[in-house]
Amino acid sequence: MRFLFGTRPYLGHFFPMVPLARELLLRGHRTLVASSSEVSAAVAEAGLEFVSSGVHPDTPLPDVSGPARSPGYSDEVHRRKIVDLMSSERPDVVVREPTDIATAITAEVLGVPSVVLGRSHYIGAEAWRRVLNGDLDSLRASFGLGPDPSLRSLFGDVYLDGVPPWFYRQPPDCESYRAVDLGQYDGVSREPMLRYPPMPYAYVTLGTVYYGDYEFYRIAVQAAERNGLGMVIGAGSEAAAATMTGSAGENCIVHAFVPQSQILCGARLVLCHGGYSTVLGALRASVPLICVPHGSDHEVNASQCETLGVGLRVNRADWTVPHASRLVARMLADSAPVERARSIAQAKTVHAGLGEVAQLLEELPDLRAAGEKPTTRLDHLVAGARGHRSVNRIGWQQLSIGRSASSQPVQQLAHDTARLALDPQGWLPWSEIATVLCLAGGGGQQGPLFAASGCTVVVADISTEQLRRDREAAAAHGVLVETIEIDMCDLGALGDRQFDLVYQPVSSCYVSDVGRMFDQVAQHLRPSGWYWSQHYCPTHLQLDPDWPWDGEAYRISRPLIEGDQVEWRSADDRITINHYMHGVGALAGGICDAGFLIQRLTEEGPAVMDGPGRAGHLAAHLRPFLTVLAQRAPR
Description:
- The chain is α/β, with parallel strands linked by helices.
- It folds into three domains: about 1-180 and about 355-385, Glycogen Phosphorylase B (Rossmann fold); about 200-345, Glycogen Phosphorylase B (Rossmann fold, 3-Layer(aba) Sandwich), CATH 3.40.50; about 390-395 and about 405-630, Rossmann fold (3-Layer(aba) Sandwich).
- Helix 20 (about 515-525) links the parallel strand 17 and strand 18 (about 525-535).
- Helix 4 packs across helix 5 (about 100-110) and helix 17 (about 415-420) crosses helix 18 (about 445-450).
- The protein is globular, with a radius of gyration of 26 Å.
């Protein structure tokens, strides 16, 4: 199928669309992004196909007749994009962010399903009427469409809103509305993070539109320094970064652009404008904020942070060094905002995830033809959801805060013992390994050990709390460990970075499609690079959950069905993790299918034999782990 994503040329509008666009791409569909040239490089970096259409909304255009609209929403701006899209190949489904009106009209003219992907606070019909100074009937008529005084066409066949319901003061009044959880994307990790500031540190940003306010940055830097905070500054442009770098202190690191998924996991506080993506990214990582609104939706977002108790809102006129310093001190002294942010980040949801939404979009043309409501179908898909992302991300956030066995940072980093801990079998060709990706390896264990062994290491994990353990361990031991929040089934945020070794502790049991995961690993290994992975043997998931040991033998009550979901709950029923069964054929065969040559394979488990029904006894009879060393084929 051909999916066309429409966006106005702003990164804050485009980035929230990327996870769904890439999900469809990885499911084998052609996925295109239509906008003006300003975002073409970002589209290419995301691995998507760009369709040049229209002009930037701020482009001066000849005077033409038509209603007086708000800046950037003139009929001529819309008309130019519609004309460009009409000359392109016809899509099967159009997906657009709410402010891209031209793509909405194009979908209606072409007669194809239209999906709105909400990216910030919902804009209702009355609000649109104020922006447009009326309706769109004159523009619609020029393309052969009838009047739409209610502006119903702006809300599509279905309105899928990535804004969590808890961030609304009042839920949207749209019949086709459904809340969804599509994860996040905030750009590509173009190059290694060569340095992190000491913990605790603050993340300081004005996003990619309002970054020209150097006074905000000057005050933020001084306020942070007065409170003993290091900083990572997202300057917004190369010119701004060059200006700030000269006056930055030793513990202040300035980047023109840095994906916040690389640094929020170690941040204690965010100082920002209140942009939606910044705010939601911070709250997903359980980091409180101080917001100084500069425009757009900032005021609403900042006020909601105050209402939720996770941040403070400050007028620009009041943003002075003394006042900002007092506010930073107040936030550092109060643990309540962090706890409230954690509570929000761990809230269990029953919303559709990437898999369910992608399936809905695949079915949308047939649903429309049959006259079936997309919302009804989506509700049905959610009821039978098997997706791993939101459930396991939240589960591991909780396990990490509770300091599970996989969330205990390593205590000693001696070079020789580090290599022995990482490679007890003696398989790894250490002389060939300089760069390492620890995949799904958060928790402060393997990453710091590789760093102590002299490697350049990136730890990638879906849980920001697990990554926080790595930031803590790296700071405690004085080693460099780069961290990034990422889903192991889509490593697109790593861009074109490749590694000598991908090292993956037990984690394939947390995803339903290991073939796709292995394909992603292969894309980020250099030719002839090495892939060390450990997997949970499926027999342990087949055991009878209520009566695994009957006094004489272990009881297997579940059949081995590839990708079948097995839910695990903590003893107090607070934490849920989804496991998925994968047989040896799917694991070993999937690794080979992705272009690897298996060099070594062994079954492993605890060496201590304890009483019947206990872990050591079970492991002696049914080894729990399958360890594999594979090498990517040379080109």
